[in-house]
Amino acid sequence: MIRPVALDSADLTAVAAIMEHYVEHTVATFNEIPPTVDDWVQRHADIAARGLPFLVAETAGGVVGFAYVTPWRPQSAYRHTVENSVYLDPAATGRGVGTALLAELVDRASAAGCRQMIAVIADTGHPASAALHRRLGFTDAGRLRAVGHKHGRWIDTQFMQRDLVTG
């Protein structure tokens, strides 16, 4: 089940735990310090104040993933363009949860008046994130080489983009 994140300890604790895994063990995020639950409360408030979606995927066992959009850049001319983030509990990968989350995120961002969605994907050496985005209509928009350094390695980022107006 995909639903808006609840501003309660259970949802945001699960979100923080999922992100902690990616911060500490992967290069999928360039964060080097895991955001706390309080950090997530603030992020939720910022996203909600902008009328943008922040979603969780829930199974009988609890929250197994989350996705949200934030403004692409702070300048006002970018106000209709958002960047997405999608993270899953490692045990939930390969079961369609990411596809369901991103599809719902695209629909809700479009309904919120967003026109373009950008994905900034760290080159982890695994094609899953780029494949997920391609399945949902994202196209390649460029690459920045060696722009991040984490866990002793230089990391490229791949940009993908989706028009939310024409799909």
Automatic annotation (TrEMBL):
Residues 1-165 form the N-acetyltransferase domain. CDD domains: NAT_SF (cd04301). It comes from the Bacteria. Keywords: Acyltransferase, Transferase. Its EC number is 2.3.1.183. One of its GO terms (molecular function) is phosphinothricin N-acetyltransferase activity. This is Phosphinothricin acetyltransferase.
